[in-house]
Amino acid sequence: MKILYLLFPFFLLLIQSAAGYSSQCRRRGGYCSFSVCRYPSRPIGRCSGYRQCCRRIWG
């Protein structure tokens, strides 16, 4: 039961860092995708370990 008190702050830090990555992606003009970037988008970075930051390409 004591381990739950240790895991809770860890999960809060994990969620907070993921939110930081998505805001960096938005600042670069992109969006976070759970899978590969769909056409006409291309990857410009990572939002987290399994999510990609994608940006649309026009013309």
From TrEMBL:
Beta-defensin-like domain residues: 24-55
Main location: cytoplasm
Keywords recorded for this protein, A-Z: Antibiotic, Antimicrobial, Defensin, Disulfide bond, Secreted, Signal
UniProt keyword annotation of Disulfide bond present: yes
Classification via Pfam families: Defensin_beta (PF00711)
GO biological process, one term: defense response to Gram-positive bacterium
Entry superkingdom: Eukaryota
PANTHER family cross-referenced by the UniProt entry: BETA-DEFENSIN 1, BETA-DEFENSIN-RELATED
GO cellular component terms, A-Z: extracellular space
Name of the protein in question: Beta-defensin-like domain-containing protein
Lineage: Eukaryota, Metazoa, Chordata, Craniata, Vertebrata
Gene Ontology molecular function: any one: CCR6 chemokine receptor binding
Coiled-coil annotated residue ranges, if any: none
Endpoints of the signal sequence: 1-20
InterPro entries per the UniProt record, alphabetical: Defensin_beta-like
Family: Belongs to the beta-defensin family.
Compartments, as annotated in UniProt: Cytoplasmic granule; Secreted
